[in-house]
């Protein structure tokens, strides 16, 4: 696992973790703090070359762009799931709840909680991914 030295001058080691929480990844904010620390503490007789600075600034911009793209893709995925689940309202479905309870009935509504789409069937939340069968509801 990679480590990053603290930039507060304490000399202690701290593990890097970024937006994804994966070991060794750092956020754009953390990267910028490290870059500023490097610039402040560089040897005045051997300053950082302009090309190195530009490479690091480019890396920051790329990191920010990837972060924004990831967020947008997450929103698009959620909207896609809502679009797929919405036509199931009024349909007869069978599936299981997150805790494994088997449920069968007509979909009352859909819920979006913490980027997860669920169908509400007889008061139970059935995650969209747990739907096993869909049929037309019988009228009557």
Could you please describe the fold and organization of this structure?
The chain has 140 residues and is of the alpha+beta class. It folds into two domains: 3-82, no CATH class; 86-135, SH3 type barrels (Roll). It contains two helices and seven strands, in the order E-E-H-H-E-E-E-E-E. The protein has helices spanning 28-40, 50-85; strands at residues 3-5, 13-15, 92-96, 102-113, 116-121, 124-127, 131-135. A five-stranded antiparallel beta sheet has the order 6-5-4-3-7. The protein has a two-stranded antiparallel sheet with strand order 1-2. A hairpin with a 2-residue loop joins strand 4 (102-113) and strand 5. Helix 1 (28-40) packs antiparallel against helix 2. It is rod-shaped and about 85 Å long. Residues 1-20 have low confidence and may be disordered.
Given helix and strand content, the structural type is alpha+beta
Poorly predicted regions: 1-20
How many β-strands, per DSSP?
A: 7
Strand content: 25-35%
Summarize the SSE layout with pairings.
Blueprint: E1 3-5, E2 13-15, H1 28-40, H2 50-85, E3 92-96, E4 102-113, E5 116-121, E6 124-127, E7 131-135
Antiparallel strand pairs: 1-2, 3-4, 3-7, 4-5, 5-6
Structure, briefly:
The chain has 140 residues and is an alpha+beta fold.
């Amino acid at each position: 696992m990679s480590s990053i030295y603290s930039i507060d001058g304490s000399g202690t080691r701290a593990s890097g973790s970024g937006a994804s929480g994966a070991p060794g990844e750092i956020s754009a904010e953390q990267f910028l703090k490290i870059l500023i620390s490097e610039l402040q503490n560089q040897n005045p007789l051997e300053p950082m070359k302009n090309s190195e600075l530009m490479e690091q600034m480019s890396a920051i911009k790329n990191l920010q762009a990837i972060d924004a793209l990831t967020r947008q893709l997450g929103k698009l995925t959620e909207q896609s799931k809502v679009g797929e689940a919405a036509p199931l309202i009024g349909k007869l479905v069978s599936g299981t709840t997150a805790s494994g309870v088997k449920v069968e009935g007509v979909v009352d509504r859909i819920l979006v909680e913490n980027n997860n789409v669920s169908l509400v069937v007889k008061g139970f939340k059935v995650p969209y991914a747990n739907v096993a069968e869909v049929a037309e509801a019988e009228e009557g």
